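Page 42, continued from yesterday. The earlier attempt failed because a stray header line got pasted into the input along with the sequence. Redoing it now with the clean sequence only.
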Amino acid sequence: MEGARCWKLAGAADAGSHTFSREQRDQNIKAIEQDLRSLPLWKFRNDIPIDSSIAEEAALDIQAEDPHPNYDQATNPLQPSHQGTEVELVAQHLKLSLEFLVAKVFRQAQKSGIITKNEPPRVRWVPAYFPFTSPSWELEIFWQGDWLEMLGCGVSKQQILIDSDISDSIAWAWGLGIERLAMLLYGIPDIRLFWSRDPRFLDQFAPGKAAKFVEFSKHPECYKDVAFWLPTPPPPPKEEFIETTNSNKPQEEVANPSGAAATAGGHMATNTPEQPQFHENDLAELVRGVAGPLVESVQLLDDFFSPKMNRKSLCYRIMYRSLERTLTNEEVNEIHEKVRQRLVADLGVELR
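This time it went through. Structure tokens are written below.
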């Protein structure tokens, strides 16, 4: 493109890791997951533009929805050191590469008979916020009647490259939850099974053996609801409001610009302009800390604002279930009461 800086692919760094997740809890999300990460890099050169190595795969056997622009200065901003034209090219390479990965895996699974439906996977791109990339996106796949996040990605923060002595490069980064990919491929309904020692699960898999998961009987669930008013602290002093504006900060240092997508999805609520934001990721982390693997899901049931009280009320349903035994109502009541007490002590809510 005329007037745009040009970049040449210089290489990529790959790594595996354990990822600690604070996302809303359900049977698709575990507090600790196996993660695969990669960082493709481009070196600056004046005469060689970015050339997507998979441009010929633009017509992949995949149904991809991407209704949002690649960047938005209010919600998914460019970094000050980046130009819009080069970010568009990097985003194109990023999205084509990851769509190609998903399509390739599904084609192979269909050939081996693990996936019996002979139809392309349906995916969508969603703007997101991650502390080390901007702009950022999540890739979700339609599975079992709902959208499941597969991976997070984005244009790497330039300060990271500067600190790594590769300031003449631009990069995009991504992280893929391996367990979620296995759930899709083998039809595994609950991510907690990967940490189970149940032989009915373990005996279905072996090195070199690819077979669809055969579901076995589940122990019954036990659900409890919890409703609470969000806290109502006094409004901050005017001086604090002035000090917290980020107009003088470089874009890379802004943790989450006003109006940006919530970290790794999730429901974010605010009572009034004077009240702090409540994020259900905080609730999910609290419930996990109390109930551990016995919690299957945490779901928002009701979101109510009282004009008379000028307060917001939330109601969540917590589903408890063990993969190994039947829980008694008495022990679930004991766990749930600890959750209620921690909600008041840690998040400052008022129980209803």
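Notes: The longest strand covers residues 7-20.
Reminder to self: strip header lines before submitting.
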